[in-house]
Write a structure and sequence with these properties.
The protein has one domain: PRC-barrel domain (SH3 type barrels, Roll). With 85 residues, it is mainly beta.
Length: 85
């Protein structure tokens, strides 16, 4: 299956273990030396409709990704690791 990085933005990330919805992919980390995707970045949830800002972005390591679907990406439940800013 081939997919463009742009198309990842329309896929929702869901935990395989408990069905928790993390959100939609906003960005990806790439290893430039060998051209691999190393992590997916999910934006943090808004607090009080965005009036109080939002939580830190979530970084999901590529080895946690289990399966790609038409509209979703299934991942192992990962601890909340903030993305590099």
């Amino acid at each position: 299956m081939k997919i463009r990085l742009e198309e990842l933005r329309y896929k929702e990330v869901i935990s395989v273990t408990d069905g928790c919805r993390f959100g939609f992919v906003e960005d990806a980390e790439l290893e430039l030396d060998d051209g691999r995707v190393t992590a997916l970045i999910i934006p943090g949830r808004r607090r009080l409709f965005g009036l109080l800002g939002r939580e830190a972005d979530r970084r999901i390591s590529w080895d946690m990704v289990k399966r790609f679907g038409e509209d979703i990406i299934l991942v192992e439940d990962a601890p909340h690791i903030p993305a590099i800013e």
